[in-house]
Model the fold of this input.
Amino acid sequence: MIKALITVRSSSTRLPRKCFLDFGGKMMIEHIINRVKFFKIDPIICTTEQDSDKELVNIAKKNDVKYFCGSEKNKLKRWNDCCNNFNIDRFHSIDADDPYFCAEEVIRSMSFLDKGYDIIYPSPSSLLGGATVGYSIKNDALSKICNTIEPTTDTEMISSFILDHNEIKIYRMTDPDNDVITSRMTLDYEEDYQKLCKILRQLGHFATRSQLHRFLVDNPSIESMNTFRNEEWAARQSNQSKKPI
Done:
């Protein structure tokens, strides 16, 4: 069974405590847990050692989900330590602010690890906000990367830290053949939340990528309601990518 590290912490600034927001009668983090389980993926809450994240530990316990508390700033080390703790050799990362990740794309991403690659990048549409798939990673490769950076380094924007390692084989996923989500579907701002809630009311918690794509095509006013936030998000990504390795 695929192991999913649900990466989450409560100290969000643009949309405070977004992982605890109500999402159809459940907290957003509970929706993510239930969606992961629904698609028969094995979840582990991967959060931090900060006191503010103890609430996430309690939610994991309540939902009978494993959890790990690690570095606040160094997300790569947190993942690596979590894998070492649970003896996990490979995993897929699912961010708690990507409520409509696509299980088909997760499975497709993980399949490339069997083809000799160490890290699988998300598809272009996902990196631009479509948020249907995360990273698939072998832990031995992650260990090599973590050994090259200081433990206290902020690795929240991970791209600049996993490039240019000669020993690491990276594959960049292409977009799926159909039903590509080009709309912004991640949760960072209030406009994102309002859009996602509108989608939830129509499609429920377990909508597939195909259902989402059709809904967004048929409802352009909803599809575009948070588009302006993409420029700010892209600028932040660009600035982070300029950090030295």
Observations:
- The radius of gyration is 17 Å.
